[in-house]
Design a protein that fits this description.
It is built from 7 helices and 10 strands. With about 230 residues, the protein is an alpha/beta fold. It has a single domain, classed as P-loop containing nucleotide triphosphate hydrolases (Rossmann fold, 3-Layer(aba) Sandwich), CATH 3.40.50. It has a 6-stranded mixed β-sheet. It has a 4-stranded antiparallel β-sheet with strand order 2-1-4-5, with helices on one face.
């Protein structure tokens, strides 16, 4: 795999078995380059979230092949995938999933503490750097429950960045935000890709968000309309 390609999906096919067998993804193939900000769009039921869960290695029941950051992940055992996810993939969801009784700093530190590659003091320093990058370091010692929705989502992005992942995957990352905070999150994503070289794939229903990203993948009836 060429070094500038961070993700390669080859002939991904996915079936749902209930209520009867149904092919929800049909021979999906594409590549994503390092430092690319990619939006995935399509109507509800088009297969975009299903594809994202396969790309994220959380769904392993598919046909085809997935390679991420130079490693072929198809067929790997669950414990190896879990470690790979924590080290190489950052997640930003529609809901922030912060632990409300923890401070913002503690929330950001959690994935790095789990990975265990750095001492606690170094992780704390790195977490503060990520919060500073997102302009929210002044809130570091506040409990997550005391922040606004927009601030919480920025903390969630900092948490996704803590292990310097090869790729950030977002599932409707602005879906719970108002227009003002949607613009802030979008600008953060664009800055991360263009200035930090971060790779981002985001499923979105927001046409403006998609249109202003580097590239749009549109899905329809389980197929890529454009790649």
């Amino acid at each position: 795999m060429h070094s500038s390609i961070v993700l390669q999906a080859d002939s991904i096919v996915k079936y749902f078995q209930e209520p009867q067998p149904f092919r929800v993804l049909q021979d999906v193939s594409f590549t994503v380059r390092r430092g690319e900000f990619l939006s995935m769009v399509g109507k509800s039921g088009s297969g975009k979230s299903t594809l994202l869960y396969i790309l994220s290695t959380m769904d392993t029941d598919y046909e085809g092949s997935l390679t991420l950051n130079g490693q072929r992940l198809t067929g790997q055992p669950q414990n190896a995938l879990a470690r790979f996810r924590n080290e190489h993939i950052g997640f930003v969801f529609q809901f922030h999933y912060l632990l409300p009784e923890f401070t913002c700093l503690e929330n950001v530190m959690l994935p790095a503490l789990k990975l265990g590659q750095y001492a606690t003091g170094e992780i704390e320093h790195r977490a503060m750097e990520k919060l500073r990058l997102l302009g929210i370091d002044s809130q570091a010692m506040k409990r997550a429950s005391r922040l606004s929705g927009g601030q919480q989502q920025r903390v969630a992005i900092a948490r996704a960045l803590i292990n310097d992942p090869a790729i950030i995957m977002g599932d409707e990352p602005t879906g719970n935000l108002d227009t003002y905070n949607t613009h802030i999150v979008f600008d953060i994503f664009r800055q991360l890709t263009h200035e930090e070289g971060q790779t981002i794939i985001a499923v979105t229903h927001d046409d403006d968000f998609a249109r202003n990203s580097d590239r749009v993948l549109e899905m329809s009836d389980g197929q890529l309309v454009n790649a």
